[in-house]
Amino acid sequence: MGLYEIYYLISTIFMVYQFMIIGYILMSWIPSLQESSIGRILGKLVEPYLGIFRKFIPPIGMIDFSPIIALLLLGFIRQGVLIVVQNIYTTFF
């Protein structure tokens, strides 16, 4: 497996998780969707990550900004992981 394939796999995993977060956020606008089976599955996968940010970033009025910060940080984490993978790959291969 080459570096490009590893990059693509990692990027795809992060992108899918970002879409899951966005979908979960959109589902929060309609509470009955979060109670569906898909909503419960997304909640189990996304809520542990979002919960970290909700502890430190309180909602302002009725708007919760923690998912925005969580998505931004996830993008930075993705870039960091890709840099580490590139360094490991170039060192050993």
UniProtKB/TrEMBL annotation:
The keyword Transmembrane applies. Keywords: Membrane, Transmembrane, Transmembrane helix. The chain crosses the membrane at residues 6-30, 68-89. One of its GO terms (cellular component) is membrane. Belongs to the YggT family. This is Cell division protein.
